[in-house]
Design brief:
globular; mainly beta; 9 strands; five-stranded antiparallel β-sheet
Amino acid sequence: MAFPDFFSAFPALDVPFPDDVVSSQAVRSEAGLVVFFTFHRDMALPMHAHGAQWGTVVEGEITLTIGDETKVYRPGDHYSIPAGVQHGAQIKARTRVMDVFQEADRYPLRS
């Protein structure tokens, strides 16, 4: 399922990955950051940690490791990553996710 066309008016983020790999649209408030990611190519996300994160798979598939547990997530599945917990993922091309970050400044908005 594609994200609605009006999402394209949301600002993109300055993420450390090329545009041909992943694109993003975001809604930010002082309380947090909501991001709609579209993965155009297979991608490996190295293990890392930050503030709390919650997400759901809209389309595609992610193999996500949270702490010591690895699980495959498909459309309709959601995940919750506590603050400070190491996590990483293998993300398949054509995957779309919605992630909500506790940190409003997790990624800067692209100018």
